[in-house]
Amino acid sequence: MNDKPRSPPPDRARAAAAPDEPGGAGPAAAPPPGSPKANPLFEIVVTIIVPAIVLMQASSPERLGTNWALVLALAFPVGWGLWEGLTRRKLSWLALLGVASTLLTGGIGLLKLDPQWLAVKEAAVPGLIGLAVLGSNWTRWPLIRILVFNPALFDVERIDRALAERRNKVPFELRLRTGTLLLAGTFGFSSVMNYVLARWIVTSPGGTEAFNQELGRLTLLSYPFIAIPSMVMMMALMWWLARSARQLTGLELSAMLRGH
Length: 260
Prior knowledge:
The chain is mostly helical and 260 residues long. It has helices at 40-57, 66-87, 93-110, 116-136, 144-147, 156-166, 169-201, 209-249, 253-256.
């Protein structure tokens, strides 16, 4: 439902700080000064709780019916992703992928497809991102520099200067390569769990009231089963990366973070 790919399930719309696209020359600059900060609690309400309530409570023929309830429920994460991208003055490729994933969910329901396609779609988005992250480990620009170690979070220039002064650029690059493998693993976890959860919960064909209700339950359960564990893994990865940078640069964490 909430279709923003990240290590937490991509089918949950969450706008990330605008990183550069894969294959670009380098990571993007930090968000423009004065950009409104997202409220995580409000985002959860808009992209998870409200759509789930709409699907589970308004899909009966006496209310909105299956199609209109599905359209209304999906409008919340799509609208949130587009609004957040516009307010940040840049719609990132992650946000666009999340919107596309949400629309695919709607297509599966409106076209009354077999529920196995929902499970395939749920697994495919984080799975493809994980494969892209893994493949980038053998390029000049591993995607961890875009998704984790980027100028939106870290003062990359200061860290690079400190690494050069201590002649530790090569050891740090090796840490980044290891971190890329770990990052790919978080997307792999999300992909497998998305598929298992979708196959377990959504068993009714698309276009039915039962399908909408099951999709609502999937949306709610994906947060504790997938999103929270994925966020914990991502935080652990960031802590490990920051600890490695501290050992190799001699800088305190506060000096490495953006804005300090």
